[in-house]
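Morning - pantoate inputs below, output right after.
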Amino acid sequence: MVLLRTKDELREWTTERTGRPRVLVPTMGALHAGHTSLMDLAIKRAGDGDVLATIFVNPTQFGPNEDFDAYPRQLQADLEKCRDHGVTSVFAPEADEMYFNDATISVHESRLSHRLCGASRPGHFDGVCTIVAKLFLLTQPTAAVFGEKDFQQLAVIRRMVRDLDFSVDVIGGPTVRESDGLAMSSRNAYLSDEQRAAAPIIQKTLREVAAGIASDRFSSPETARAALAEGIASEGLARIDYVDVVDASSLETLETFEGAIPRLVAAVFFGKTRLIDNVGLPE
Ligand code: PAF
């Protein structure tokens, strides 16, 4: 496995390997089984081509009061996981390698980004789009894998690929969960034991309400939303940022179930830690 630290090293590597399928797995490191499942998907997709993982805690997607400084950084452990999962090469630049101090151009998505996570994290999806666009341009992948846990991010990236004509096939990887249903996330490490024990309420409630929608127990998305809020709030340590039942591709709040593919989404604070999760309807 090759470790690339600069854009020049990356360009040289990609030039040498022109013409081979290349599947990109962008990450911010602190890798867990959720990330390695994306690498496994990428390996299958790449065939005899290359899997390139990126490890970069992207400053432009963190707000001023968010956890950029505290975000876990563990490059050596991450590199071992990449090696164990058959990644061909890892690009792990420093922030000043990726951004000019006086950069004035960024990528702005103006429809899907303003609500849900975007409402409490202004500018977050501009930061995500900008770094992902830069990584696409630098690495020239044939496909890229992103986790469905960040459902809004996946939708925004698909929209960027469509609207900016990137020739990249975007693949969504299913959410990987702990044995009690909590979605794996690097931020789970911030939870106290008490908060950790309480956090599975998110997935439990999302799943119950999704099953209720599938069996016509809710007359409207509005009543399903109320059930989501009530179920999650029944856990005293949970503070809801948002819950919603949205259209899976436009992310707009659903007014009716008629002809819709619903996605149930939630962001919930436990203390200062904000966790997100989402589910579709059971098959
Ligand atoms: O999902 C993440 O880890 C990040 O948002 C991404 C896509 C690597 C961009 O920094």
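Note: The mean pLDDT is 97.

O.
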